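Problem: given the chain below (455 residues), write out its structure.
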Amino acid sequence: MKNNIEDTIAAISTALGVGAISIVRLSGKDSIEIVNSCFQGKDLTKVDSHTIHYGWIKAGQEKIDEVLVSIMRAPKTYTTEDVVEINCHGGIISTQRVLETILSHGARLADPGEFTKRAFLNGRIDLIKSEAVMDIIDSKSEEANKLALSQLSGTTSNLIKNFRERLKQLLAGIKVNIDYPEYYDIEIITKEKITQELKIMKKELEKIIQESKNSSIIKEGIKTVIIGRPNVGKSSILNKLLQQDKAIVTEIAGTTRDIVEGDIYLNGILLNIIDTAGIRSTEDIVEKIGVEKSLSMIDEADLVIVVLNNHEKLSIEDEEILEKTKDKKRIIVVNKSDLNKNLDLSNKNLENIIETNTTTMEGVNPLKEKIKDLFQLESLKTKDYTYLTNARQISLAKQAYESLKDAEEGLANQLPIDMIEIDLKNTFDLLGEIVGETYNEEILDYLFENFCVGK
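Solution.
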């Protein structure tokens, strides 16, 4: 049965474990009364809003924990409802007992993300800002945190809302011209005027979609796979990039039999680097599995680093790897540049070739610089953070763009203006789904299920 939004909900809002404090949060019309019924201290029903009070949480006559209780009355709260936060001692047992006591006095355990869902349903934040809350919690880098904060501040929401406002004005003009053609003092909305406006809007929306590709780099980082045949120096490159001996390095071919992972940051952007088993034909069952896994990793990667040996001629395995990765974003690393050159790539028509060696820490700097250049990491840091940041938002924007295109093509094909109006209204609704002006209840439930319980 679906939970009632009128219920008073409670949950632990801090991570469970040993710590200085834990917070049990309540939201709903009975929050203050419920906490007051098991609180020894001031009468919380009579205190001012946004004040903190010392006392004890009690179960019957038993003192459960010494606490500080924050009282925040509607509507100036996170959910716009009455909110109470109980600051108790950190630790699993004491926090759970405080929560159990609160639940026994009439609160219901909150669903995942239900506090933020209520903030959205009560109109305090829109859907983009709601998703930004979880993005802040999940931020893997300073840049990802800035991106989420930008969304929470409303810059992206305002961009979409302003776009919808212009569409609404255009739709209103079309509607007036269709319904009241006899009025001489209204602005005439011609097909030429609509076409001109659609070209501008289509270009702007395309720019939003294109620039939002940066958001996945900022949020998730760059999944980077190092691939090559055995003993070309893949593991040594990984170790130098990570500045630690993460992968075992020996002269024995096939030492790396499974993937080895590590993270570094370049210009504030996370690189998840994966060293793979050397690509070669082998009868060794374990190594064979490693080779197959290495090849499968290519398809999942944002960036493939193909490592070749400067000291050796191009082999059949090298050729196969280059062919396998030709359609991926890749960097070709000619490693062991400190040794005599026997590798010739002059007739291969290859791009993004750099030389490295792992004899010094600086030997892999050309690789770092090439990654920065390939993903434009320098400019990425200086740009604003007005991006759509997840697959849901970007997918809806793409659908809205296609709907604009349909309207534009309809005009070019001399379709009736009321048919064009349908495509424009669809664009308006799709953009509304991004910010939550229009929404599907089932999708909404799915979005908030991914939140932690106390948020």
